[in-house]
Design brief:
Pfam family, one: adh_short
Number of helices: 6
CATH class: Alpha Beta
GO molecular function: oxidoreductase activity, acting on the CH-OH group of donors, NAD or NADP as acceptor
Helix content: 40-55%
Protein name: SDR family oxidoreductase
CATH superfamily: NAD(P)-binding Rossmann-like Domain
Distance between the termini: 34 Å
Number of domains: 1
Family: Belongs to the short-chain dehydrogenases/reductases (SDR) family.
Structural class: alpha/beta
Bound molecules: NADPH dihydro-nicotinamide-adenine-dinucleotide phosphate
Order of helices and strands: EHEHEHEEEHEHEHE
InterPro entries: NAD(P)-bd_dom_sf, SDR_enzymes, SDR_fam
CATH architecture: 3-Layer(aba) Sandwich
Largest sheet: 7 strands, parallel
Strand order of the largest sheet: 3-2-1-4-7-8-9
CATH topology: Rossmann fold
Number of strands: 9
Radius of gyration: 16 Å
Amino acid sequence: MTSLFVTGCGRGIGLELVRQAMDLGWDVAGSVRDPEVAVSLERRFPERFRVFVFDVTDQQALRDAAAAYGGSLDILVNNAGVIGPGRQSTLDMDFDGFAETLAVNTLAPLRVVQAFLPNLRLSGSPRILTISSIMGRMSYAKSDRIAYRASKAAVNKVMQGLATDLLADGIAVRLLHPGWVRTDMGGPGADITPQESAAGILEIARTTTIADTGTFVNWDGTTVPW
Ligand code: NDP
């Protein structure tokens, strides 16, 4: 049975990934920050689902969760993310908010990978998918929400490096744009539903092999230019 761990699974794309992976019969686990959300998820998915409570910026909590998870993990999805502070233009920056955005969107995915690496190494087909965004593309010069854009551009570089470093171990590392999705972050006017996005992401997760490592793909499987 395929095992999956999704960070930030209490709402949005993460919740839908969990719901659909449960329907596929996978062995599903995920993380939330709020213990009350954890309780409601446990009620909603009483079988084959394990929920862990941690903030992705908390290194010790991540290590504890990975140890408690125990055993083999096939697919890790770095999904948790933030859009960043209200003031995030290059000429008017909330620097504390910028630092927090980098901590969650850029540093935390690597922290999560490092914590769960022992579990991934036990899998016969380990895959790491980090949800990035086309807003981080270097080939597209726009300046709105620059803290968010910079955090996603930086996580692309970090994960590209990780793909190189884990190649010999046979651990595939990919970056994924989930589409413009109708969640709290994407807003009600976005292009696609969380259901459509999650279905695409799970199909990519299911079919990813080490031959795909180091690539940046859209939710529909097409390549995203860096
Ligand atoms: P939501 O805002 O709906 O959900 C964000 C999730 O991340 C929540 O579960 C939230 O938990 C969690 N999270 C935020 N900060 C932390 C933290 N410090 N520790 C643990 N969990 C945290 O966003 P989406 O579902 O739309 O986005 C999911 C991913 O997709 C993000 O990485 C986002 O950047 C990316 N993305 C989304 C797009 C869109 O159109 N929606 C487009 C491109 C990329 P909590 O409930 O506790 O706040």
